[in-house]
Each structure stands twice: as structure tokens, then as C-alpha cells.
User: Which sequence fits this backbone?
């Protein structure tokens, strides 16, 4: 089974889907990561890309695709260009399961990527696609203005008790993106969220998602 995770920024894929990614791979699925943006500082951008590749190599990702669109400035780019870039990835990978950022996240890049992903994942163009899930990203999903439209309301939980250590190890490769607790992008906060999500459904560690579309 082909699985596509679309991440606005490097590290979003591990924060939101890391344990589930490891679970997919353990079950023999092919996982593709599409990282949409890159920073303006070339040296730092290259460093973060290398961190991403190290994390993905550790997990056993099939392919990492960098679109290299400008970070924070997606809203200034023609919608057709963003849609086209993500659509090409979708058509090249032919996912049966897709994970996309939550539309209600605070960062504008997350909102834009979420909307463009849904355009690329139109069912008429993707007969193989069975499920689309939105994932939460610490320091983005919980920080936007609280409203009905922005709320992350999970209705799917994945037991990642057996893969949480792989998620935390993969995140440790992102040294430039990690902070000390109580920053949400800390190992302790990531583990705490997995324990909270897990406790909701009676397991030790979990990741939660919003099911956007399912085809049986």
C-alpha cells in the first residue's frame, strides 16, 4: 500500500504522523514524504534537509520529495503553482492513504498546504485513494484562534505504543527544531501528547487524526 504524508515544513511529518508512519512501514507499506517548503537561508535550509533525510532513513521512508517552495510565503505564490506541484507528487506516488495538515493550524503554510492537498487528492483523479486524514502538529494546531472552524476534533486514533520510541528517535534527528520542555516541540511534550491521545482509547501511546474522506 502506498502512503503519502504531505508536510508544510520539515519535521511536521514526524510530529504529526511519526508513530503511524513507523507502523505503516512495519506492515510493509511504502511511505512517501512530500516536504513543501524550504527556508531562505541556504545553509540552514540544507542543514534541515539533511536532518529530514536522516530521520527518514532511520524510519525507512521510500522517498522524500522536496518541493522547495518558500517558507511562510506560500500565500504569496499563485495557487495554481502550489496545486500543480502537490498534484504532481500525488500522481507520481498514487497514494491509497494520504495524511495532510489540519486546515485550522495557526501557520498560514499549513492552511495553504491543506487546501492545495485536497485539490490534488480529488477523488475523480485518484480512484486508488481510500483514506484522507488530517493530522495535528504541536505548536501549530493548538495555538490558532479558538473557533469552531479551527478546532481539531479527532475521530480516529492509532495505537503507536510499539512505535513511539521510533517516533521520538526520528524526531531527535531534527536537532535544529527541538527545544526544552515546556516548549511543545520538545521530546517530553511529544511523548506527553502521545500518552494523552493513547489514554483516550485505552492504550499507552496514540496518534489522533481527523478522517476527512473514506472509501470502502
Assistant:
Amino acid at each position: 500500500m502506498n502512503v503519502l504524508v504531505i508536510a508544510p515544513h520539515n519535521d511536521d511529518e514526524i510530529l504529526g504522523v511519526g508513530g503511524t508512519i513507523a507502523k505503516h512501514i512495519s506492515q510493509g507499506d511504502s511511505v512517501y514524504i512530500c516536504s513543501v517548503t524550504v527556508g531562505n537561508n541556504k545553509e540552514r535550509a540544507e542543514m534541515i534537509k539533511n536532518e529530514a533525510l536522516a530521520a527518514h532513513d532511520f524510519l525507512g521512508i521510500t522517498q522524500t520529495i522536496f518541493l522547495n517552495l518558500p517558507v511562510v510565503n506560500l500565500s504569496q505564490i499563485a495557487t495554481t503553482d502550489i496545486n500543480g506541484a502537490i498534484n504532481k507528487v500525488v500522481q507520481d506516488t498514487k497514494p491509497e492513504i494520504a495524511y495532510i495538515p489540519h486546515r485550522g493550524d495557526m501557520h498560514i503554510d499549513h492552511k495553504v498546504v491543506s487546501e492545495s492537498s485536497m485539490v490534488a487528492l480529488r477523488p475523480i483523479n485518484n480512484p486508488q485513494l481510500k483514506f484522507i486524514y488530517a493530522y495535528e502538529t504541536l505548536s501549530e494546531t493548538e495555538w490558532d484562534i479558538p473557533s469552531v472552524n479551527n478546532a481539531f476534533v479527532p475521530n480516529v486514533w492509532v495505537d503507536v505504543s510499539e512505535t513511539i520510541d521510533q517516533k521520538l528517535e526520528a524526531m531527535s534527528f531534527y536537532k535544529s527544531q527541538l527545544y526544552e520542555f515546556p516548549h511543545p516541540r520538545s521530546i517530553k511534550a511529544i511523548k506527553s501528547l502521545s500518552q494523552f491521545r493513547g489514554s483516550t482509547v485505552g492504550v499507552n501511546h496514540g496518534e489522533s487524526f481527523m478522517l476527512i474522506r473514506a472509501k470502502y
